Amino acid sequence: MAQALRGKPVADALTEELKARVAALTEKGVTPKLAVLRVGERADDLSYERGATKRAEKCGVAVERVILPEDCAQEDLMAAIGRINEDTSIHGCLMFRPLPKTLDEAAACAALDPAKDVDCITEGSLFGVFANRPKGFPPCTAEAVMQLLKFYEVPLRGADVTVVGRSLVIGKPVSMMLQAANATVTMCHTKTRDLPGKCRQADVLVAAAGHAKTVGAGAVSPGQVVVDVGINWDEEAQKLVGDVDYDAVEPIVRAISPVPGGVGSVTTAVLMAHVVEAAERTVA
Prior knowledge:
alpha/beta; Rossmann fold; 2 domains; globular
């Protein structure tokens, strides 16, 4: 039976660390604050917002909601971002995406102050990830993968890691972060020739393709560590599933993160860590 790389202990440990850092900031008269910028009432946005708010309460991070109607004008959105940028009491901003198609999402992302970009939606933050420089913050989910591997003491130095997925949200940034940890990274995707063969060669496999059961029994080998980043709704089973066929893969590999209960459980704690770090930078 494979070791289950569960996210809850990782998130709990990070939360305890953040409590101490928030207490130190409070002594200096600073309360870390996150602005949640949401347009409309998408169910997945609301779900994540609830989870983030609960995690913020545990860490001692304040949350300010900035809610706009789905049919808001671009000017209203840009004005809201401008107010967040100018408010010195706000240290980080989480803007839910995708935005309604009537809005210019690229312009909205570009307008946010990179210093408050705690989920890597600006080009400045992406540059920081790709150049391995402390500018902005990496995507929360990509860093959650790294936190999970660190907590379970998965060695990355010199390891062969295959990442399945090439998005700017997960695939590309996590590949850069893994390389910064001295792993040798192979990037693949659903159009890769002999994808199963390339996956089998890895010491660590990160599945972030965005398609259910992309990774099956034929794509893994004994001794591997598998991190499943995917979140997909299985209509037939009426439940959330990952990009990995868990039932088929779990008996073969050494360790695997479940869905739900794996990487996703760590993301809100990472979000709070970014807000706290942003606050710390203002008093450094």
